[in-house]
Amino acid sequence: MPFSSRIQARGVQLLLSGMMTRVHEELGFTDIPKRTESLRVETGAGPVDCTVYRPPAGTGTGTGTGTGTDTDKPAPVYVNFHGGGFIVGRPEQDDHICRYIAATAGCVVINVDYAVAPQRPYPTAVTQAYDVTEWIAENGAAHGWDGSRLAVGGHSAGANLTAAVCRTARERGTFTPRLQIIDSAPLDQLADPSTKQSPIAKPLLAPHLMRIFTAAYVPDPADRAHPLVSPAFADDLAGLPPALVITAEYDRLRDEGDAYAKALDAAGVPVTHRVFEGVDHYFTHTGPVPAGKEAIELMSDTLRTALAA
């Protein structure tokens, strides 16, 4: 990556790091108590810090104490990857989603603080995301969750990583997520962002900003068509986990999300696809509030059903 481009990416990184944590106060779910703890997982690309969200006490989802009663059965687990264009390392931006899902879907939620570009470009985030998820699947008994009942999901860049985790798990045969949540994902890192259209004049994602994201995360253009970078180019989707795909009407990423949902369905993957009208990228964080709440409730409801099956 040219030095000037790296400096430009660092500038955007610093600018967005503060902005990305500003969630609309009515989407904050501050009325929901949260029980959290810190966890560090060793991966093939260095240690990764995670925040573990436990379901509220008394919800009957299990504490992992193993005494044999229904309420003591370990809860299933959901692994969450935040967004930020692969360059913003602020997992707390998803605190509202994590605490809501933990409280309403009856599962432990693990929010992953993966490394970001330009300091740590591809494939670091993919390696960390997969290794953390594999560790979570294999180490539930010692930590009070049921790793055999696992789902994975993410938002924007985190949704791209979700697709990469699911693909890698299928290829290695290590674990099988019961659900993947693909929310407003960048799935085509090869096309120039100016070709990605929106019906409104000034959508949130500007082409120049998107180019900075891509150049920082995948500095070698030869890597940008790889299925772990651009899932839209994968032609072997059969056998991937059931998916909830969320897209936004005004988002420049909508078309590739819609196309990915159709491709999964054509490959025989069970898909729930919802296009939220009248909203732009990141609406689950900044609003409009009704649509944001509805989307987060949809995630929680779909998770609850998938993890209880």
Number of domains: 1
Indicate the radius of gyration in whole angstroms.
Answer: 18 Å
Category from helices, strands and their pairing: alpha/beta
- Element order: H for helix, E for strand: HEEEHEHEHEHEHEHH
CATH H-tier superfamily: Alpha/Beta hydrolase fold, catalytic domain
Helix content: 25-40%
Question: How would you explain this protein's 3D organization?
Answer:
Mean pLDDT is 94; it is low at 63-70. β7, α6 and β8 form a beta-alpha-beta unit. The longest helix has 20 residues, at 289-308. This protein has helices at residues 3-19, 95-104, 124-138, 157-172, 207-217, 254-266, 283-286, 289-308, and strands at residues 35-41, 48-54, 75-81, 108-113, 145-155, 180-183, 243-248, 271-276. It is an alpha/beta fold. The chain is 34% helix and 17% strand. The protein has one domain (3-308): Rossmann fold (3-Layer(aba) Sandwich). α2 packs across α8.
